[in-house]
Amino acid sequence: MERQYRDGSAGDADYSRIGQGYRNYRRPEPEFEAAISQALGGAETVLNVGAGAGSYEPRDRRVTAVEPSAAMRDQRPVGLSAAVDAAAENLPLADGAFDAAMTTFSVHQWADLNQGLSEIRRVTTGPIVILTCDPALLDRFWLNHYAPKVIETEAKRYPRISTIAEALGGEVETTALPIPLQCADGFNEAYYGRPEMLLDPAARRSCSAWSFLLEAETAEAESALRRDLDSGHWDQQYGYLRQRPHFDGSLVLVTAQGSGS
């Protein structure tokens, strides 16, 4: 029997409604894992904020996960520690408790970005690693033609990279992460060369921006994409992406050095 949740606790998206089955589509992409691991440096203790179902959590370090959604905490696989029920803005953790911190696809969910990053700074002595999307680059993805409201919603939710850097303070580095064609992590841009995946309702539910559309708007976008795939029009316009090994989309890694770095 499928478990039902009514926590509604994960920022602006209701993961009690859309989060079930999330980990089936949002699996860690090895190329991104490697980039995160490199950015974490030699940290032995790592805080993972907005940890979700545990994607990108390093297995070779001591990790403390924080996740406010019960639906997401319950999907953490065997082998990962239980996540602390808390939000980024109010971490029940001691000052300087961690060598490093990380958060992936999470900062756009926080109610107060500045407070959340301040809290992470408080409990972390070393690097802070943030996997996020640059809202200024989202409209380069072809989905903007079929579901502009999805792109518009994402652009409004994701904080500007300059805003993140200013809130973090200190030395901050931003690195673009090209998206591989067979990307294991099923966010919208991961399907740049596999458009049929966005005809799958479960795949769309794993990309929270779709939850802000009305049912009629989603149906219209799906119908238009299906029609263009069936007619061959999509391939005439974008078919070259099916063979492109990487797509330069909106994904970036923001790394802030700690006070002891």
From TrEMBL:
It comes from Nesterenkonia sedimenti. The keyword Transferase applies. Keywords: Methyltransferase, Transferase. The keyword Manganese does not apply. GO terms for molecular function: S-adenosylmethionine-dependent methyltransferase activity. Pfam families: Methyltransf_11. One of its GO terms (biological process) is methylation. Residues 47-124 form the Methyltransferase type domain. It comes from the Bacteria. InterPro entries: Methyltransf_11, SAM-dependent_MTases_sf. This is Class I SAM-dependent methyltransferase.
